[in-house]
DNA sequence: AAAAAAT
């Protein structure tokens, strides 16, 4: 199967092949011909499956062959987040470079002036988040009566975010005679209902979840104590020893994102942050810094979990285990894209056990627990000794024979051993046999990890000691 | 529980 077999125009085909694409992804192969035949589509697919091109490409051909009437927009693409909308707009510009199609990106957080101007000039395609679109509509800046093509992207995310009433209202503003494409990773009942109401005789296309198919991502659970400074320490350790090129670090809270980024910067990492409390220009600027490699670590809330397509992300860290298992799938999907390999670490504190359980149920696979050298506390003057978690962990990990050594109070003077450890861990294996059974199984041998076939991260080849 | 989205 090649792009040439899908029925796209020669002109567009050239653009696609010039961009270096030869073989369509499964969803592109099955969606594009149907979209060109003007069918309604339900696409059950995650981001990272080539979904965007599966509607952008045929849309360009359809628009190129039709004629615009009175400069009214002829198609509308709805996205749940501003960044995703911006990304689809980029795609549209890339693939539509050889066509005289105009486009307006209608998202919040940026001034309305330019958007209104573009609308007045007349555009073929609207790419929008629901809030700004409704706003502009209510102000009388948009007429949707010429929109004969509608794309509802990431419908389940829209549902999560409470956008479904908005979507329904927007649907009623569009002409009844139209083509509607709905994409969603999952099909919960409200989305099914939405599809029944607004799509006509849709063709359902389903492609496998990346989580169950993307064997390019090596996944690990990192047991951690609940305290955030413990987690930060563990994170720094992994960032250093794992030769991280580019990483996205997900936190569950915006405050955690801010704190963590600040802390990473203080420790000399080139990091940035993105979350919904930032001004939109700032959000885009940080994303741009990351894409250009000026920073190589992006600390993010779930605003960045879905759909963002950034090339070459080698690592994803879940600094907090996500509350929703779906989010896990989306987060780790930021790495291992386009056939590249990636590593995903999920920090799991004792309280996160249930979340982890749900994640493993959803993906249907058990995630390897990573055994790591203990994080050794430096003496922190003025800080009260913590009472619970570290001690519990110590007790759980220590073999009876070690109890005396392990039970030493944290404030007892000991050599600082964490720093040198990262410098030259493999030359100085420490620890006796009693430690060996705590290594990750198979460390240093041919990996048996459910299909991981990428290069083995260096630290996994090393004998881990405590 | 949190985050996202119109201001």
TrEMBL record:
Keywords from the named record: ATP-binding, Cytoplasm, Helicase, Hydrolase, Nucleotide-binding
Mark out the compositionally biased spans (Basic and acidic residues): 415-435
GO BP field:
response to temperature stimulus; ribosome assembly
What is the uppermost EC class here? Answer: hydrolase
Tell me where in this chain the DEAD-box RNA helicase Q domain is found: 1-29
Segments carrying the region annotation (Disordered) are 378-466
Q: Where is the Helicase C-terminal domain?
A: 234-380
State its Enzyme Commission number(s). Answer: 3.6.4.13
Q: From the record, which residues define motif Q motif? A: 1-29
Kindly provide the name given to this protein in its UniProt entry: DEAD-box ATP-dependent RNA helicase RhpA
């Amino acid at each position: 199967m090649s792009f040439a077999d899908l029925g796209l125009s020669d002109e567009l085909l050239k653009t696609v092949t010039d961009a270096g694409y030869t073989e369509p992804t499964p969803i592109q192969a099955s969606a594009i011909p149907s979209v060109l035949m003007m069918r309604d589509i339900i696409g059950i697919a995650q981001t990272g499956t080539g979904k965007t091109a599966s509607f952008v490409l045929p849309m360009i051909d359809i628009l190129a062959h039709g004629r615009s009437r009175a400069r009214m927009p002829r198609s509308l693409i709805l996205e749940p987040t501003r960044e995703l909308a911006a990304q689809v707009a980029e795609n549209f510009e890339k693939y539509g470079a050889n066509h005289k199609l105009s486009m307006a990106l209608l998202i919040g957080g940026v001034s309305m002036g330019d958007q209104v101007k573009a609308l007045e000039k007349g555009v073929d395609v609207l790419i929008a988040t629901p809030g700004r679109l409704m706003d502009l509509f209510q102000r009388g800046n948009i007429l949707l009566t010429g929109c004969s093509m509608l794309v509802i992207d990431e419908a389940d995310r829209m549902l999560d975010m409470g956008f479904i009433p908005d979507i329904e209202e927007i649907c009623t503003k569009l002409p009844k005679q139209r083509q509607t494409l709905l994409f969603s990773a999952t099909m919960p009942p409200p989305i099914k209902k939405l599809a029944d109401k607004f799509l006509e005789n849709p063709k359902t296309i389903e492609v496998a979840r990346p989580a169950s198919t993307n064997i390019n991502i090596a996944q690990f659970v990192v047991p951690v104590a609940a305290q955030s400074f413990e987690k930060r320490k563990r994170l720094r350790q992994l960032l250093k020893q794992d030769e991280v090129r580019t990483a996205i670090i997900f936190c569950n809270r915006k405050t955690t994102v801010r704190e963590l980024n600040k802390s990473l910067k203080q420790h000399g990492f080139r990091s940035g942050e993105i979350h919904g409390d930032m001004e939109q220009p700032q959000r885009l600027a940080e994303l741009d810094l990351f894409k250009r490699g000026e920073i190589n670590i992006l600390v993010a809330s779930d605003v960045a979990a879905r759909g963002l397509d950034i090339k070459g992300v080698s690592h994803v860290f879940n600094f907090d285990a996500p509350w929703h298992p779906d989010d896990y799938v989306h987060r780790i999907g930021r790495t291992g894209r386009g056939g590249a390999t990636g590593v995903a670490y999920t920090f799991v504190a004792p309280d996160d056990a249930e979340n982890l359980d749900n994640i493993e149920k959803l993906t249907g696979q058990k995630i390897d627990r990573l055994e790591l050298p203990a994080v050794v506390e430096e003496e922190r003057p003025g800080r009260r000794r913590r009472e619970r978690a570290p001690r519990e962990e110590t007790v759980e990990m220590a073999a009876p024979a070690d109890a005396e050594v392990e039970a030493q109070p944290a404030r007892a003077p000991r050599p600082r051993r964490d720093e040198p450890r990262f410098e030259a861990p493999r030359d100085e294996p420490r620890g006796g046999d009693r430690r060996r059974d705590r290594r990750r199984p198979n460390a240093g041998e041919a990996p048996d990890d459910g299909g991981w076939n990428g290069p083995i991260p260096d630290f996994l080849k090393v004998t881990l000691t405590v």
